[in-house]
Every structure is written in C-alpha cells, then in structure tokens.
UniProtKB/TrEMBL annotation:
UniProt keyword terms in alphabetical order: Coiled coil, Signal
Coiled coil region boundaries: 25-59
Source organism per UniProt: Maribacter litopenaei
Keyword Signal: yes
Full protein name: Lipoprotein
Annotated signal sequence range: 1-25
PROSITE patterns: PROKAR_LIPOPROTEIN (PS51257)
Length: 129
C-alpha cells in the first residue's frame, strides 16, 4: 500500500507537468499563428503600396516673408502679430518688458525688441542681415 501511495505522489506531479507543458505549447502555437497572420497582412500592404505608386506632384514651398518673423528692432506690435499673445510677461517700467512664450523670452525696451532667449526654439525669429 505504501508503495502505491509513493507511486501516486511521483506520478501526479509528472502528469501535472505534462499537462501544463501541453497548455503552454497551445498558447505558443496561437501566438505564432497570430504573428504569421500579421506578417501576411503587412506583406499584402507592402505589395499594395508598391502597386499603387502614384506620381508625386511637386509642391512649391510657401514663400516666407518678413511678416512671418520678427527680429531685433521689431516693435512690440510686430512681435504680437507674429507670435500671438505671450504666455506671460514682466513689465519692468523704464527698464523694459519681457514677453514669455513658454520658456523662451523676448526682451523689449521702448517698445522695440532688444534681445531674446529662444530656449524652446519656438520663437519665429529672423536674424537681420
């Protein structure tokens, strides 16, 4: 009787292991099947794109004008036209004004741009020639 119980204790874990391996094999098979289906769809999409090569029409770039930018010496009005309303500002009276556009700043004195810090790269600046 003791030998039978020992055999059961040895056989039961083995059966459990075999069943769990079979289950994971089924999951792997489903995963591989899904990957193969996705691969087939991607290959079809690539083929469709190759077959549908259309002539690309050349598009001329928009001409950039001075009204799209401001520079040192521009008026505060010009900066507001180009950049829109600032996210904040500091009015330092006779020492000028600082307009904030995110982390970037535009420094004004007597209503004209005297400097800027384009930290975020978001200022539309044109360096005067």
């Amino acid at each position: 009787m003791k030998n039978i119980i020992k055999c059961i204790y040895l056989i039961l874990p083995m059966i459990t292991l075999i069943l769990s391996c079979n289950s994971s094999n089924q999951t792997e098979k489903e995963y591989i099947k899904n990957l193969e289906e996705k691969n087939r769809l991607l290959e079809q999409e690539i083929t469709d794109l190759k077959n549908n090569t259309k002539e690309v029409q050349s598009v001329e770039p928009e001409k950039v004008t001075d009204k799209d930018f401001f520079t040192i010496g521009s008026t505060e009005k010009k900066v507001l036209e180009v950049m829109g309303n600032p996210t904040g500002y500091n009015d330092n009276g006779r020492f000028g004004k600082v307009l904030w556009y995110g982390l970037s700043t535009v420094k004004l004195e007597n209503g004209k741009v005297v400097g800027y810090d384009n930290i975020e790269g978001n200022l539309k600046i044109n360096i005067a020639e």
